[in-house]
Specification:
Length: 321
């Protein structure tokens, strides 16, 4: 499986891909970019934007921008590292080998890269996160070393180690905690040196949307995960209840906005409600029972919702500071 194409269906227009055709696998740098799963990166960007904005107006002398940049590096590197680690661990277990699987490139499962090379990419990404996080810990406090070590361990053992918790249905908890609460409140903490109610409250809708990305990803993969013995939360809940969970997470994120903006004294944070216009399409597609490959654009749409929501919430929080 290294880029073979199916023959075009009769009557397909020249130069256009027939419906269901397999895209040729990327190579070189493009292969590693695809393996990093860029559609998941809004889950890393948004919490840093929102957490930093929550700290605006509360830092003597203004925001410390190098710390914001370092927090962004940590978050992005952890996301990429977790994606590579997931690819490596699933690949060597054979859970990505099922030909029914759809979605992003699997470097190991599709035989596109050697397992050792993917493992090195994961470890290198974790090291980048560790270096940037170490600089923050030296500037802010040693407690960040503990938080960083826990985040790295959680990223690796999501699908790695003898008892991966992602295979037991706890992946959504990891995403909510580390790409919601920890990343958002932590981005504010490195600016202020303390946890605040506003940052913790803002982390909840951010965590909901990050979790929604994983839920729709696992919804898409239910058949393959069930066949390979991977007991994700989606497999445990079943198709219909997983769809309800996805919708509940998106609705919950928008319901939380007035509470964050109003009770947090940052009324312009309500700008995030405008992102609801982007949420209609993925919600409708999920409720219309889109399956398999049909859910790939839903994942992309969910990422766009999260990014728009995060940018607008961050802008509103900063404007109201």
């Amino acid at each position: 499986m290294t880029g073979d194409r199916r023959p075009p269906s009769p009557g397909a227009a020249p130069g256009r891909r027939a419906p269901g055709a397999v895209r040729p696998a990327p190579n070189g740098l493009a292969l590693w970019v695809a393996g990093a799963r860029p559609r998941t990166l809004p889950a890393a960007v948004v919490p840093v934007l929102v957490g930093t904005a929550a700290a605006a107006g509360r830092v003597h002398g203004g925001l410390i921008w190098w710390r914001a940049a370092a927090a962004m590096v940590v978050s992005l590197a952890l996301q990429v590292a977790t994606n590579y680690a997931n690819d490596y661990s699933d690949g060597i277990r054979g859970t990505d080998a099922d030909e029914r699987r759809v979605g992003p490139v699997r470097l190991v499962g599709q035989g596109l890269a050697a397992p050792a090379a993917v493992k090195r990419a994961a470890l290198a990404s974790f090291a980048v996160a560790g270096l940037a996080g170490g600089a923050l810990a030296l500037a802010v406090g040693p407690e960040l070393f503990v938080v960083g070590a826990l985040a790295i361990a959680a990223g690796w053992f999501y699908t790695g180690g003898p008892r991966p918790y992602g295979y037991a249905g706890f992946g959504e908890v990891f995403v909510f905690v580390f790409f919601g609460v920890v990343a958002t409140a932590g981005s504010a903490y490195v600016q202020q040196g303390q946890l605040t109610g506003l940052a913790l409250a803002a982390s909840v809708p951010v965590g909901f949307l990050a979790t929604a990305l994983l839920v729709v990803n696992n919804l898409r993969d239910i058949p393959g995960d069930r066949a390979s013995g991977k007991r994700t939360l989606a497999v445990r809940l079943g198709d219909s209840r997983t769809r309800m969970l996805y919708v509940a997470l998106l609705v919950g994120a928008f319901v939380a906005v007035p509470l964050v903006a109003g009770l947090g004294g940052r009324p312009a944070g309500a700008l995030a409600l405008a992102a609801v216009m982007l949420a209609q399409q993925p919600v409708v597609r999920v409720l219309q029972r889109a399956q398999g490959r049909e859910l790939v654009p839903v994942l992309a749409s969910t990422g766009r919702v999260q990014l728009a929501f995060g940018v607008l919430l961050a802008a509103g929080l900063a404007l109201s500071a």
